[in-house]
Amino acid sequence: MKTIRLMSLTLGLALIGAGLQGCAQTTPQWDQQFGMATRANLAAQVIDPAAAANRNPATGIDGRAAKNAHDRYQSSFVQPESAPPALIISSGSAR
Questions:
Q1: Four-CA torsion 74, 78, 79, 83, nearest 10 degrees
Q2: pLDDT tens-digit series, residues 11-21
Q3: In the chain, helix, strand, coil percent, each to 5?
Q4: Is the pTM above the cut of 0.90?
């Protein structure tokens, strides 16, 4: 009697497990979307895929402005930044 009950319980659990297996989402649906976020981010970063073939890439800025910007950039590394002022925290007791 105890063996029959154990076998029927095992068979019932196996049937429930097989039924739930058919309801579960499978990985092919996930694999279809694999890498989509990476490809979307790459597409957002690439403005002009044919930029390497462009023979006139420096449009929009004249030579004098470019030289001044480059000089300011280079001089920013020569002069160290001044230290920020010290942070003073008061305990709130006034005399």
A1: 100
A2: 888 878 777 66
A3: 60, 0, 40
A4: no
